[in-house]
Please model this.
Amino acid sequence: MFKLQSRGLADGLAELTDIEQRQIPFATALALTETAKLIKSSIEDEMRAVFDRPTPYTMNALRLIPATKQKLEARVWIKDEADGAAPATRWLTPEVYGGPRNNKRSESLLRARGILPEGKFVVPAKGMKLDNYGNIGRGQLQKILSGLGAQGERLQNSTDSRRSAGNRSRYFVMRKGREAIGIAERVGTRRGDIQMVLAFVSKPGYAKTLDFFEIGDRVADRELAAQFEKAFDRALSTRRR
Model:
C-alpha cells in the first residue's frame, strides 16, 4: 500500500495564527488527497503500458482512500474484495512484488477431485479459445469443470443436466503414460478429433512488472509541494470570515 502522510504538523501549528491553524489541516488533507489521485492515475497509465490487454476489471482494481483533517494520510492500494470473482489483490499483488502465482479456484477444485496432480498448475493450451483480453472465459471453464465433475458443491446439481452429460463426454484428462498432462476436448467423431485445452505445468511465477511504489514516490516528490500551495490558497479564499 502506498501512503502519503504529514508528520510534525502539531509543532508547526503552535507558531501560526488562529486562521492558519484552522486552514492548514484542511489544506494538508486536500493536498495529500489530490497527490494520491495523481499517483493512482499514473499507476493506471503504467498498467495500460505493461499489461497485455488489461481487462476493465484490472483497470478498476485500485482504491484511493482520501486524507481527512483528523487523519492526515491518503492511501492508494489494490482492492481486496470482489463480487463473484477473485479479489484483485490475489492476482495483481504478484505483479507488484514478483514471486509465485497463487492457486486459482479452478485449480483447487481439480486438485480436490484428484485430477490435477500436486505441484502442478493450469494454463491455457493451444486448443483453448481465449477472450479478447487473452483470458479463459468463465463460461468455458465452467463447461470443462462440469464435464470433469469438479464444479464444487455450489454447482453440484448441474451435473445431472443434459448439457452436463454432454460436457462429460466432451472433456477428459489427457495422460502421457500414467502422468496426467492436461485436459482435452473431443471436437469430432473420429478417434483423433481431440485438442488439448488446458495444460498442467510446474508452478508458474511472476516477474515484478508494475513499479507501483516507485511511481508513487516519484509522483509524490514532484507534486506534493505544488498541491499543498494550491490547496492552501483555496483554503484561505474559501474560509469563513
Notes: The beta strands are 2-5, 62-65, 73-78, 99-100, 120-124, 171-176, 179-186, 194-202, 205-206. The first strand starts at residue 2 and ends at 5. Residues 103-203 form one domain.
